[in-house]
């Protein structure tokens, strides 16, 4: 369970992004975040990925205060940021290996698991080349692979479909729906979210009401 209690975020005096926000997200929930650019979606997701701190309130995952104990929290989390945030000197395979090892989950099957996931995302012969040489779409596929490789309990994704072709978008959506079925919490900000889709449990509209 991910619980937000009286969360507020303010960047400077008089500039309130949101305040007194309370949400509880349960395992197996798929939550879509919708709103225009600049409405606070990315700020909200950055706060939940511990790339930003709340001005007030707390966020707890199970019994973990995520901003006081980010290491224990983030080992359960798969992240896709809207901006490119990849180590350009590594290959996709090396990055995914680092992600698994940093979570203490490396096993004899891990390399096969990495290659199966990269095959699914059609990241073919360039998987062993430096990420700095990749196209925009390949970098996005690498971000998505890094988010999914540990089979996270919580997925936080900011515009994960941007830069992907139609067939890859369908594959990624299938992966998200499968993660939901496996009891992961899925939080996604995307212009491609369909409000009427049966896999959506709830929609959060931005900007959030300010108090």
Give the full name of the CATH homologous superfamily: P-loop containing nucleotide triphosphate hydrolases
Helix content: 25-40%
Gap between N and C termini: 26 Å
CATH class: Alpha Beta
Indicate the low-confidence ranges by residue numbers.
none
Looking across the biggest beta sheet, what order are the strands in?
Answer: 6-7-8-3-9
Rg from Cα: 17 Å
Q: How many helical stretches? A: 6
Please give the CATH architecture: 3-Layer(aba) Sandwich
Largest sheet: 5 strands, parallel
Task: Provide tags for this entry.
211 residues; alpha/beta; five-stranded parallel beta sheet; 6 helices; four-stranded antiparallel beta sheet; Rossmann fold
Layout of strands and helices, then pairs:
Elements lengths: L1 E11 L2 E11 L4 E5 L6 H8 L7 E6 L2 E2 L4 H5 L2 E4 L11 H11 L7 H11 L15 H13 L5 E5 L7 H16 L3 E5 L12 E4 L6
Parallel strand pairs: 3-8, 3-9, 6-7, 7-8
Antiparallel strand pairs: 1-2, 1-4, 4-5
Helix pairs in contact: 3-4
Account of the 3D structure:
The chain has helices spanning 41-48, 70-74, 92-102, 110-120, 136-148, 166-181; strands at residues 2-12, 15-25, 30-34, 56-61, 64-65, 77-80, 154-158, 185-189, 202-205. It is an alpha/beta fold and 211 residues long. The chain has a single domain (2-205), classed as P-loop containing nucleotide triphosphate hydrolases (Rossmann fold, 3-Layer(aba) Sandwich), CATH 3.40.50. The strands form two sheets. The chain has a five-stranded parallel beta sheet with strand order 6-7-8-3-9, with helices on both faces. A hairpin with a 2-residue loop joins β4 and β5. The longest helix has 16 residues, at 166-181. The chain is globular, with a radius of gyration of 17 Å. It starts with a strand and ends in a 6-residue tail after the last strand.
């Amino acid at each position: 369970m991910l619980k937000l209690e009286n969360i507020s975020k303010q960047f400077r005096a008089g500039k309130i992004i949101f305040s007194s926000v309370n949400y509880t997200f349960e395992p197996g929930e798929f939550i879509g975040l919708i709103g225009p650019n600049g409405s606070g979606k990315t700020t909200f997701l950055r706060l939940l990925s511990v790339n930003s701190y709340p001005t007030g309130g707390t966020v707890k995952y199970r019994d973990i205060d995520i901003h006081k104990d980010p290491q224990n929290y983030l080992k359960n989390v798969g992240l896709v940021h809207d901006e490119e945030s990849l180590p350009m000197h590594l290959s996709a395979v090396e990055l995914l290996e680092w992600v698994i090892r940093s979570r203490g989950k490396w096993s004899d099957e891990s390399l096969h698991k990495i290659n199966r996931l990269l095959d699914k995302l059609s990241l073919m012969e360039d998987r062993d080349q430096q990420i700095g040489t990749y196209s925009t779409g390949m970098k996005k596929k690498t971000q998505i692979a890094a988010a999914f490789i540990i089979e996270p309990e919580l997925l936080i994704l900011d515009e994960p479909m941007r830069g992907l072709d139609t067939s890859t978008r369908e594959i990624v959506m299938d992966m998200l729906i499968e993660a939901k079925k496996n009891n992961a919490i899925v939080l996604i900000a995307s212009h491609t979210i369909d409000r009427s889709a049966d896999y959506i449990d709830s929609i959060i509209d931005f900007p959030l009401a300010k108090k």
